């Protein structure tokens, strides 16, 4: 958080440029110019799984046949340009100044925010190596924008696992068995799990199961990106 404040202070002293095209911003524009902001316009999706659809629907055919454990998923877009490189800049380039404006854009597509946000946790070894949890950063800024509570320690990762990148759905599920625990029973019945990218849903399904077992009734997923289905096979 200290590095993020330093970055924001430094950027305020520089000429204001679009975070995508790097052209000067005009009066009333913030972070992105009007042309680049069009990249973030909502596209038709299934409200349940969050995957892109030809038209918006509350539940696609796949969700009707085999619904996920969560009730709704809201995202900014697919894991593609311009969101994918921005997430890489945050995750590997420590460009934390990108997170607040992305969180504000995400807040605009959430119709009825959950009163409690829980970020997907990192194992302590991964946290020490990386120095931050991008899901926790997103949950922090999202909670401020939505005026709701977030708890960073309620969910805990108790088993270190190999990275999920490159694994197929069944491999991801095996990789995550007994990897998480719930430190205490949440008081809210409506909870949102926060992650930067949802790919197959294996991680959030494990966390949903923990919450449902202690009486949580409604679970949202708020993420920056949803990986298109053809990448999840």
Architecture overview:
With 233 residues, the chain is α/β, with parallel strands linked by helices. The chain has a domain at 73-231: Rossmann fold (3-Layer(aba) Sandwich), CATH 3.40.50. It contains nine helices and seven strands; from the N terminus they run αααβααβααββαββαβ. The strands form two sheets. A five-stranded parallel β-sheet has the order 1-7-6-2-3, with helices on both faces. Strands 4-5 form a two-stranded antiparallel ribbon. Helix 9 links the parallel strand 6 (190-198) and strand 7. Helix 5 (99-107) packs across helix 7. The longest helix has 13 residues, at 134-146. The radius of gyration is 18 Å and the shape is globular. It starts with a helix and ends in a 7-residue tail after the last strand. The relative contact order is 0.16.
Number of helices: 9
Q: What is the percentage of strand-forming residues?
A: 15-25%
- CATH structural fold name of the domain at 73-231: Rossmann fold
CATH class of the domain at 73-231: Alpha Beta
InterPro entries: ComF/GntX_DNA_util-trans, PRTase-like, PRTase_dom
Protein name: Amidophosphoribosyltransferase
Domain Phosphoribosyltransferase: 138-229
Family: Belongs to the ComF/GntX family.
Keywords:
alpha/beta, Rossmann fold, globular, five-stranded parallel sheet, two-stranded antiparallel ribbon, 233 residues
In short:
The chain is an alpha/beta fold.
């Amino acid at each position: 958080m200290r590095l993020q404040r330093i970055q924001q202070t430094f950027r305020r002293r520089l000429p204001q440029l679009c975070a995508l095209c790097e052209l000067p911003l005009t009066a009333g524009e913030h972070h992105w110019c009007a042309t680049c902001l069009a990249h973030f316009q909502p596209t038709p999706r299934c409200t349940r799984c969050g995957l892109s659809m030809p038209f918006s629907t509350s539940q696609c055919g796949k969700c009707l046949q085999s619904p996920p454990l969560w009730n709704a998923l809201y995202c900014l877009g697919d894991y593609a340009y311009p969101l994918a490189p921005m997430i890489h800049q945050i995750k590997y380039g420590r460009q934390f100044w990108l997170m607040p404006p992305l969180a504000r854009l995400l807040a605009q597509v959430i119709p009825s925010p959950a009163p409690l946000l829980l970020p997907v946790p990192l194992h302590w070894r991964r946290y020490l190596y990386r120095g931050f949890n991008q899901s926790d950063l997103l949950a922090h800024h999202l909670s401020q924008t939505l005026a709701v509570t977030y708890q960073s320690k309620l969910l805990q990762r108790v088993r270190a696992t190999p990275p999920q990148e490159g694994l197929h759905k069944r491999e991801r599920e095996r990789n995550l068995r007994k990897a998480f625990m719930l430190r205490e029973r949440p008081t809210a019945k409506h909870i949102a799990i926060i992650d930067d990218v949802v790919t197959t849903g294996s991680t959030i399904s494990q966390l949903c199961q923990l919450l449902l077992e202690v009486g949580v009734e409604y679970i949202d997923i708020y993420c920056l990106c949803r990986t298109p289905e053809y990448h999840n096979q």
